[in-house]
Structures are given as C-alpha cells and as structure tokens.
C-alpha cells in the first residue's frame, strides 16, 4: 500500500521503472510458506489467530499466507482486510482516499492479529493500522508479517516475520506484484 | 478588504453548494461520494464509530432556518471524523442584535474554522458566504434552490437497495415548486441516468421547467404502478404566500399516498421522504411504517454521506473527480 500511495503522491509521484528483480514468484511462494511456519511456531498453533491484509498491497499476500497456514495446520484462519486511510498522519498533506471498505471478519478482543503488508518502509502505515485495529477491539497481540523490509524506519516499529530484508536507498522504490519483487526508481 | 483565495493550511478548498459542484462529470462526482460513503457506512457500524481523520479541524453549522435531521446529521458526521463542531443558532446569536451576515461570517472565520455548513431561507446565501469565506462552505439547504447532501444520501439509499440508480423510474410527488430537495434530486437522479417523473398539481410545479429532463404528470394513480421509487415531498406551507391548493385535505385525497395507493406500487418499489413528514397529508401513517418505506435508512445513510462530503472537502486533498489538489 505504502509504495502504491507514494507512487501517486508528489514529490514522489511518477512511474515505477524496475532495475533489478530481487525475488521471483517462486521465491515469494517459498518465503510465504516459511513465514506461515514461523507464525504457527510462534503462536503454538493457530488458535485465535486472525490474518489481516493492509490495503492494497498486503491483501493478496494475506490471502496467500492464509492459504499456506490452512494447508499446514488444517484449521481455518479468519482473513480480513484493513484500509488505514482515515488513520494516516499525513491527511491534508497529500491526497488520501481509501481503496476499499475495511472488512474485519470477527471481534478482535483476545485474538492474535497478524498484520500483512507488502513493503515495510517508514512504519507510518503500520502505526496507522495499529490505531485502526484498536477501534475494532483489544487484540491479545499484534504481529507484523511483510514480504520486504527495506529499512528507513521513522517510528519504533519492527516486523515479526519477514520475507526478505532488502537494503535500499531512500530514493529507490520497491514494487511487489504476484510476479515477484522489483527494485527500481520512480521516474517522473 | 482583500481576502486570500487559498487557505494556507489546506491548499485550495472546494465547496459543495449545488449538485453541479460535483465536477464537470456530475455522475462521476456522485459515484466518488458513494464509494467513499461505503467506507463510512462500515465505520458507522463499528462498536467505536469514530476515526481520527479530521482531528483538529473545526466545522461550524450556521443554521438560519429550523432543522432537526440535517443539523444533527452534520454534527454527528463531523464528530465521527473527530472534528470539533460549533453550533450557531440565529435565535441566540448577535444576528438578533442586527449583525449582518457578512460580519457574522467574518467573526466565525476569525476563530479559525475549516468548514461552514449553511442553511438559509434565501436561495444563494451559501454561494455568497463562499465568496466571503476562505473555509469550505457546504450548502445544507437554501430557500427553494438546492440541498445537495440530501440528494447524495437519496442516491446512496437507492443504490444500496437496487445496486444502481441508472434506469430506475423515480416519481417525485408533491410540493415541487418550493422544494430544494426536488431540485437537487432531479439534478442528481437524471445525472445518474434515472427516469424522473414529477407528480403534482400544476400550481405546485415550478414556474418554468425548461431544461429539466423530466416528465410531468398530475395523475398519481397512473404513475405509481410504473415506478421503482416513489419520492414524497412535504407540503411546505411556511413558504406558500398564496392559495396554491384548495385545502390540505383535498391535496391529501388526490396526491397523498395512503394504503390503497401504496398497493398500486410494484412489490419492490421504495417509498422515500426527506423528512420532516406530515403523517396524514402526503403520507399515511400506515404507509410511513411500511417495510418498503426507507425513511429511516435515508437518515442513517445521511450521516455516512456527510462524513464522505466533509472528508472529501477537508481531508482527502483531492478535488471531486479524484485528482490531487495539493
């Protein structure tokens, strides 16, 4: 989500031009499977675990992670999606509109929420997501799974499950699609 | 006194004074509000129906005319967006001491407000206020002219029931001449591709209907079997300066929707009313409580629609049509 929004936003706006492919579709699938195992290991099963994808980039990843979890454990995992547009700290500074309607499948009181996003960058989207989640109930724990951690955090936020740690320059851009992960630049 | 055209805090502001303000492509503008409203309906259904989107913004409602639902609806919408609200009612203000409208606006603006919600008995007052004010101005009803947020919430309610407004046949029945709701609704419904028929005695139709893409009828019993939506209007007796109808009772007999007339409607047809309704005049008490009567839905959706309008004007940083405006 963060990457997509940045794409629309001055002074970052422009078109993404890929330079290097850093993960193939197979790499992503393997990383998803590994993260699924880690999630089950950390939570000693999947009791009360809810997977919530962040709009928009996290949603397909959350769905795939959910599939992987169900394949390994055999139990059904509730899947939701969260749009944090109304919780962002840059409302009024740049265009902010929700992409879709938030869908939280169950009451979060006492649940363990696994937030899923494609790229972890400044951490501001996650900060907004934590605020949003607290309006849906008091989760027992919130864990964060991301496909790519590219560094440059501006807030004290860290991921629990990472597909790939990718050192980047601040002015580079990371694009996650179902075909793979690309590193490149935004070109105006 | 010269005034800046832009508000330094939020860039160029846009107003919502009429349905035409929703952009060069009115249908696209309405659909944008509808899409955003979906998100706010979800917010309204939560245990904690509040988001921090407009924290630190102030919305003032400036009502020179009585109102229950519109004022409360805007206030609830602003509060659910975490904005601060100020209320201004003429009867307790310095307007009573002879303060002019312009001075009142300047005083309110000096306190640092971000949006002014105006209702006034004279058409054009919100547009005049918008020329004086640097904050966003929202028309909450001006005389016989327009009431755009009512039209938006009506479109949303129809869309919620039928999935789409396009192709639906909507009859607007009653005092169309004095109705700002009718003017905004005709503009919005026809922009979205609905067929609109106005049903009223000739004296309660506007003096000129030129440019209105609508059909006219004086026979409600012939129209009702063909409609998807029957939209009833209140008899605005406070705006009638001459005898336009013989008696309320005769109007009620010829145009009021009673149980017998409600049976003429197709099974799926909705009965709508912008409120306040006069039971026994334009709508029978039993019809008002009919399952196809969606008046309560209209009020509920009104809050979400006004949240969307406030967010688009104050928070999103976009103009109608979605392009960036920062």
UniProtKB/TrEMBL annotation, chain A:
Organism per entry: freshwater metagenome
Alphabetized UniProt keyword annotations: Transcription, Transcription regulation
This protein's record includes keyword Glycoprotein: no
Name this polypeptide is given: Unannotated protein
Pfam families the record matches: Pribosyltran
Family per record: Belongs to the purine/pyrimidine phosphoribosyltransferase family. PyrR subfamily.
Entry-linked InterPro entries: PRTase-like, PRTase_dom, PyrR, PyrR_bifunctional
SUPFAM superfamilies given in the database record: PRTase-like
């Amino acid at each position: 989500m963060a990457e997509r929004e940045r794409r629309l936003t001055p002074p970052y706006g422009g078109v993404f031009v890929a330079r290097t492919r850093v993960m193939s579709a197979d790499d992503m699938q393997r990383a998803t499977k590994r993260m699924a195992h880690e999630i089950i290991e950390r939570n000693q099963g999947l009791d009360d675990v809810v997977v919530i994808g962040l709009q928009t980039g996290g949603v397909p990843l959350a769905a795939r992670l959910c599939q992987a979890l169900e394949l390994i454990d055999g139990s059904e995992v509730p899947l939701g999606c969260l749009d944090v547009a109304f919780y962002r700290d840059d409302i009024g500074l740049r265009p902010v509109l929700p992409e879709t309607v938030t869908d939280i499948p169950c009451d979060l009181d006492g649940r363990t929420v696994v937030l899923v996003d494609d790229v972890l960058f400044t951490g501001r989207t996650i900060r907004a997501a934590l605020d949003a989640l607290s309006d849906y109930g008091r989760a027992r724990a919130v864990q964060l799974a991301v496909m790519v951690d590219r560094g440059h955090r501006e807030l004290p936020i860290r991921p629990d499950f990472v597909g790939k740690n990718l050192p980047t320059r601040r002015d580079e851009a990371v694009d996650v699609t179902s075909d793979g992960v690309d590193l490149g630049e935004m070109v105006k | 006194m010269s005034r800046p055209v832009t508000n330094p805090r939020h860039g160029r502001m846009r107003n919502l004074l009429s349905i035409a303000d929703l952009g060069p492509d009115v249908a696209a503008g309405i659909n944008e509000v509808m899409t955003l409203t979906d998100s706010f309906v979800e917010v309204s259904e939560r245990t904690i129906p509040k988001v921090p989107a407009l924290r630190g913004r102030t919305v003032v409602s400036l009502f020179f005319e009585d109102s229950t639902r519109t004022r409360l609806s805007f206030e609830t919408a602003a509060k659910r967006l975490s904005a601060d609200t100020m209320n201004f009612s003429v009867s307790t203000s310095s307007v009573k001491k002879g303060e002019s409208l312009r001075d009142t606006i300047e005083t309110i603006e000096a306190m640092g407000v971000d949006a002014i919600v105006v209702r006034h008995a004279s058409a054009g007052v919100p547009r005049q206020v918008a020329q004086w004010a640097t904050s966003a101005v929202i028309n909450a009803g001006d005389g016989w002219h327009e009431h755009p947020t009512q039209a938006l919430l009506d479109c949303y309610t129809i869309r919620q029931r039928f999935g789409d407004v396009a192709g639906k046949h909507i009859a607007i029945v009653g005092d169309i001449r004095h109705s700002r709701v009718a003017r905004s609704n005709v503009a919005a419904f026809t922009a979205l591709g609905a067929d609109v028929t106005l049903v009223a005695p000739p004296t309660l139709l506007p003096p000129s209907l030129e440019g209105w893409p609508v059909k006219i009828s004086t026979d409600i019993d012939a129209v009702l079997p063909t409609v998807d939506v029957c939209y009833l209007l209140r008899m605005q007796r406070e705006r009638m300066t001459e005898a336009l109808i013989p008696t309320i009772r005769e109007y009620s007999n010829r145009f009021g929707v009673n149980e017998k007339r409600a049976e003429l409607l197709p099974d799926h047809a909705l009965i709508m009313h912008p409120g306040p309704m006069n039971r026994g005049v334009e709508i029978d008490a039993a019809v008002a409580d009919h399952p196809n009567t969606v008046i309560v839905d209209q009020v509920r959706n009104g809050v979400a629609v006004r949240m969307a309008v406030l967010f688009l004007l104050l928070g999103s940083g976009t103009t109608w049509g979605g392009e960036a405006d920062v």
